[in-house]
Amino acid sequence: MPAKPIAALALLLAAAPALAQTQTPLERGGYLVKGPAACGQCHTNPAPGSPELGGGMRFAELAYTAVAANLTPDPDTGIAAWSDADLVNGLRNGKRPRGSLIGPPMPIAAYRGLSDGDANAIVVYLRSVKPAANKTARSGYRVPLPDSYGPAVTRVPEVSLADPVKYGEYLAHSVAACMQCHSRPLEGGGADLAAGLGAGGQSARGPAGAAVATNITPSGIGHYSDADLKKVITTGVRPDGSKLNPAMPYAYFANMSDADLSAVVAYLRVLPKR
Ligand code: HEC
Ligand code: HEC
Does the domain spanning 164-269 belong to CATH 1.10.760? Predict the structure, then answer.
């Protein structure tokens, strides 16, 4: 009598999008910032006692020494003066209110695809964070930044949760920036999201030094079960017990819902092998 479980599954699937929509923007924003978007991986200083999203972390690379900004609503040192539209524009187009460009390693190329609802939810959450007075140093870029990250993004429709592969693609590209780190580096910066999609090869720097992102197409991770993959993404521990470099924000990914992790895994499974 297979009809019963199938009916139950259909009900569950039908309920999934509705569930997400019952979150308030504040709840949704908090989930994204502390989960898949992992803003704090860069914007919360790992030194004990540092304020949430207070900024100050330095990223020293050959091409730049960048300092993560203070994202708290502090009037003097944070983002209190930015309007909601300024913040959404900053996230998706990498432009500050006066027009200067937000540089790497902030993954603007990924956030260009953040949906209107999710970008707004992130802004709502940032407004709710405890203001922290922390004046951060200026970033220095030894290579010229481009004039823009591309044509201005003004509207991105919501991605339906009904199709896990599509939703997983959205999370992996535009929210968690998996594909920015895990796709082959382009000469001159950025990631090759076409021929090099998921092929690995970018170096990523975390609190414990640099590591090279691995191939996450089926040729790299095909031997992992879904459970293995979820475990490695959320704990940084491989099935053989070896530990990943914390350049990958697995402590944040640990806050992802199981449905979102399943969607990301479903997307990785259908990537062309590289
Ligand atoms: C991989 C590291 C990284 C991640 C992840 C990251 N950022 Fe950033 N962000 C930076 C750095 C570094 C800067 C400073 C860049 C510069 O000085 O041009 C920055 C700058 C910014 C700015 C500009 C602030 C100002 O005062 O100029 C905003 C707004 C911002 N980030 C928001 C976010 C939000 C929201 C998230 C999560 C959705 C996020 N960032 C994720 C590294 C990161
Ligand atoms: C800031 C860059 C960065 C981001 C963002 C990132 N990763 Fe990674 N990831 C890495 C690096 C670097 C490694 C290799 C770490 C090591 O070798 O110790 C890795 C390792 C992995 C592994 C282990 C592969 C293996 O061979 O054991 C998987 C699976 C993985 N990442 C999936 C993901 C997924 C899915 C996402 C998004 C939800 C993601 N990563 C986001 C940098 C990143």
Answer: yes
Cis peptide preceding 249, ω within 30 of 0: no
The domain spans of the chain are 24-141, 164-269
Beta carbon of 101 within 6 Å of any ligand 2 atom: no
**What pLDDT, in 10s, does the model give residues 217-235?**
999 999 999 999 999 999 9
pTM for the full predicted model = 0.93
264 lines ligand 2 (CB under 6 A): yes
Q: Which residue owns the Cα nearest ligand 1 atom 11?
A: 68
Ligand 1 proximity of 41 Cβ (cutoff 6 Å): yes
* Cβ(56) – ligand 1 distance below 6 Å: no
- The reply to whether 164-269 shares the fold of 24-141 is yes
Residue 107 CA to ligand 2 centre (angstroms): 15
The answer as to CATH 1.10.760 being correct for domain 24-141 is yes
Answer yes or no: is pLDDT of 181 > 70: yes
